[in-house]
Amino acid sequence: MTSALFYDRLQFAVTATFHYLFPQLTIGLAVLIVYLKSRAYWSQDAHYDEAAHFWTKIFALSFAFGVVTGIPMEFQFGMNWAKFSTFAGGVIGQTLAMEGVFAFFLESTFLGVLLFGRKKFGPFVQWMTTVMLFLGSWLSGLFILATNAWMQHPVAYGVDQDGTVHMTSLWGLLTNPWLVWQFTHTMTAAVATGSFVMASVGAYYLLSGIHIDAAKTFLRTGVVVGAIATTALLFPTGHHAALQVFEHQPIKGAAFEGLFYTESGADLVIFGQPNMDTLTIDNPLVAPKMLSFIIHKYFGAEIKGLSDFPREDWPDTMPLLYYTYHIMVGLGTMFIPLMLTAVVLLWRERLFQARWMLWTIMLMAPFPYIATTAGWMTAELGRQPWLVYGLFRTADGNSPLVGSGNVLFSLLGFLGLYVLLGLLFLFLFFEMVSRGPAVTGGPRSSSEPTG
Amino acid sequence: MAVETLWFVIVVMMFAVYAVLDGFDFGTGIIYLFVARTDEERQLVLKAIGPVWKGNEVWLVAGGGLLFLAFPKVFAAGFSGFYLALNLVLWFLIMRGLSIALRSHLRNPLWRTFWDAIFSVFNLLLAVVFGAALGNIIRGVPLGPDGYFFAALWTTFTPGPIPGILDWFTVFVGLLAVAMLAVHGANYLAIKTDAAVQTRARRIADRGSWAVVLLALMAVPVLLFVQPALQDGYVAHPVGCVLPLTVGAALFAAQYFRRRQRDGAVFVSWSLFILGSVGSVAWGLFPNLLIAVEDPSSSLTIHNSAASSYGLRVGLVWFGIGISLVIGYTIWVYVSFRGKVEQGLFGGPYE
Ligand code: HDD
Ligand code: HEM
Ligand code: HEM
Question: Ligand 2 centre from A148 Cα, in Å?
């Protein structure tokens, strides 16, 4: 059964990674659309209305892909992880069902209203609809992260005689301390993705000399929100995410920092390759004693290294985990000065002429996606070998009767389909961007949704 | 009523409402290529389901979540046991969803024709698979004593001791589902459109409904032959007989209103017919959720597969609040978009 387990894990990793490429944009854009739409509503400014409409179309595109790739995620709990579902259904069934009832209905229903109701509803209903979309997408983030937070840090549960778990307090499940930083960090990352993409499209228009008015709005909004979000990603949210990992999952922490041996005054590894034979970092570049300082605010503090823990409790993909973490933090550290510089330029009214900056911003759009994916890999690879941390091992969780040949069949199917989906998305995204927002007052503003 | 029973009702209700709501989307897709011939007509038809189909699909997603919440063992056994069929469902849902969302993005006629075909074919396939899935649940599955099973896509094509997902019975239920939903979709389009599309929709609904009457009459003996235990629920709780009676009455009413071209009443009756059919089957199966074909003591029932009573109780509270909100704004949307869809100026929902 080992190979079935391997394909089960690979399939979950592939499908989850792919799914989350889409919601992170919709979650982020939702905030920005509410902002644009609020300005349109209160200042009755058609320019902002067109900007909001343009991003609603992008939102809808990403949403469509998010929905179709999301349904496989939910089904896979039962399909590939039957023993885990039996074990944990009494707890995580709650949050997954709440997500459906409170979030997905809201989001799916009101997206239809927003897309097809432009002629039908007045400005207030339209504004409220964007707020509902925002609520829906953020609530789905909240409930799915409550599920994941419980897997990272199980709380509010009791163990039954047959070894399965049940929930003892819904309130406890929803106020899992782990959720606080996981939710804020993940949502901030989504806002970063949304604002980078918005700024990037703005930069592209300015550099090409088209849609100048819209471009300036996109850039201004994207850069300011992006600067706030990227800063908040490091502090407080990322910092506290790391603190709670070291407090509750010390093995994960040691693994992603590349700390093989317990040290007082542990160095922070900035660069280097973990060597799994010698259990050292090759050609390390370190900040002396910084790790101890970051985690315990004291340079001499002791931090436990991997070798203090039994090897079967180490994450089985330790080097990958180390890299994904360093990719996330590395990118995050570069985003902050970049975005702050852009804000300073904006404030000095030089951003729109600074072509080197516009080029940089235009090309930055994929990187929050990479950072986010790397962040998830960190969280999920680092949780191994546990499916529910400290309670239930991944190796015990997959479906007993679904053999490796059948999982490979579905994995290949998903891979093929998702390559196609990815290409389609990119094609349509660029097609929409090149069509651009409607010119206010021009002929397009009289267009109405059809079909 | 015990809390497990209430959850049985809730879960059945979620899937039954799903069958009615996404059912007319499927039906629209099944007849799409015939009912709408020109590009304008096809846009019109897609616009008829455009604002609502995504919300309709959520009944499935939420239903799955609620099944997970209330009966985790059934969720685990059923979803892993139907592994192959569910993968097909997932891929079909992906293609179906994309076809609606992407079709009108470009004006290129080849692009549109391609997605039109995808839309139609995958809706048809979904109707077949969901019908067959219901057939599997009725017939029972090869559940072992450990509570798991794995069903091949097909074995001998007969509902024997090692049944496959497809056998003559489940395929029969699949075809019945296709016919019922095709008519359902046509009924919906008769309300939402006018002129040529409406005429064609009415004609399809009229012919199709007689096929459904025929198949439904055949279905009764077939069902009782394949799963005699369906009677048990009615013997234990005879009040349930109102459900099959409703089915008959609704079918009759639909045909009656159809002759008078009262499209709204036809649609409502047909929806009741679908709801009642799912309900009747559920009543017969109660308290079973998954019947074991070989050893009935391995069957998963509401008693041996329910989550803890605390979970079920708090679940009821928030579900009551949540679903009331959902029903409220869903009705609001349907009312807001009531009436015939109009031809627009431009091609896509996003322009
Ligand atoms: C734009 C994306 C992005 C950026 C720039 C950062 N993160 Fe992050 N990070 C995420 C996006 C993300 C994420 C995708 O949202 C994760 C995955 C799971 C989670 O809760 O958030 C995550 C997880 C995650 C974890 C793992 C939590 C766990 O194991 O459960 C830690 C320790 C950090 N982050 C810390 C940081 C630090 C110190 C950053 C410094 C700049 C940082 N992140 C930037
Ligand atoms: C959307 C962002 C997510 C990404 C990119 C992601 C990534 C991954 C990866 C890479 C794995 C494989 C780990 C391994 O086998 O070594 C995995 C496994 C898994 N994840 Fe996630 N994950 C995400 C969100 C979630 C959430 C929100 C949940 C819970 C609701 C979840 C539940 C699981 C489960 C059940 C497995 C399979 C068991 C396991 O391998 O641990 N994931 N995920
Ligand atoms: C691995 C676990 C996950 C599961 C089981 C899952 C499940 C789903 C499902 C079933 C849908 C479709 C909903 C519909 O029909 O409307 C969906 C869409 C969505 N999911 Fe996920 N999801 C997972 C990971 C995530 C994560 C980590 C987030 C955010 C933090 C997220 C946020 C969303 C959002 C916002 C949508 C709406 C569609 C969109 O905006 O693109 N999901 N998800």
Answer: 8
What distance in Å separates the CA atoms of residue B212 and residue B147, rounded to the nearest whole number? 36
Instruction: Write the pLDDT tens digit of every residue in A400-410.
Output: 988 889 999 99
The verdict on the CB of residue A22 being under 6 Å from ligand 3 is yes
Distance from CA of A386 to the nearest CA of B (A): 19
- For the four alpha carbons of A40, A41, A46 and A49, in that order, the dihedral sign comes to positive
- What is the Cα gyration radius of chain A? 23
Q: Which residues contact A443 (CB under 8 A, 6 or more apart)?
A: none
- Give the contacts of A165 (CB within 8 A, at least 6 positions apart): A87, A88, A90, A91, A154, A157, A158, A159, A391
Do residue B101 and residue A160 have CB atoms under 8 angstroms apart?
no
| A33 closest CA partner among A235, A228, A297, A222 | A222
Q: What is the ipTM of this complex?
A: 0.91
What the block records as the tokens of A449 is 């949704």
Compute the average pLDDT of residues B109-121.
Answer: 94
Closest C-alpha among A92, A96, A144, A147 to residue B307? A92
Query: Residue A26 CA: which ligand 3 atom is closest?
Result: 40
Q: Is B108 exposed, middle or buried (0-12, 13-18, 19+ CB in 10 A)?
A: exposed
Q: What is the mean pLDDT of chain A?
A: 91
Partners of residue B210 on adjacent β-strands: none
Nearest ligand (C-alpha, residue A186): 1
Please name the residue whose Cα sits nearest to atom 12 of ligand 1: A372
A20 CA closest ligand 2 atom index: 1
Q: Best residue in B14, B73, B350 to probe A by mutation, most A CBs within 10 Å?
A: B350
- Give yes or no for residue A447 having a pLDDT over 60: no
pLDDT of residue A377: 96
Q: 228-287 in B: which are within 8 Å (CB) of A?
A: none
Alpha-carbon dihedral of residues B231, B236, B237, B240, nearest 10 degrees? 0
Q: Does A404 touch chain B (CB under 8 A)?
A: no
Residue B262, by phi and psi: left (phi above 0), alpha (psi -120 to 50) or beta?
beta
What are the pocket residues of ligand 1 if the criterion is a CB atom closer than 6 Å to any ligand atom?
A 152, 182, 185-186, 189, 192, 233-234, 238-239, 241-242, 245, 252, 328-329, 331-333, 335, 368, 371-372, 375-376, 378-379, 382
Predicted local confidence at residue A439, as pLDDT: 64
Q: What average pLDDT score do residues A49-72 get?
A: 93
Q: Picking from A66-75, B202-211, B246-255, B331-340, which range would have the lowest pLDDT averaged per residue?
A: B331-340
Q: Do the Cβ atoms of B132 and B157 come closer than 8 Å? A: no
Interchain contact, A93 vs B106, CB within 8 Å: no
Q: Over pLDDT 70: what percentage of chain B?
A: 97
B101 pLDDT above the threshold of 60: yes
Q: Which of A431, A394, A292 is nearest to A88 (CA)?
A: A394
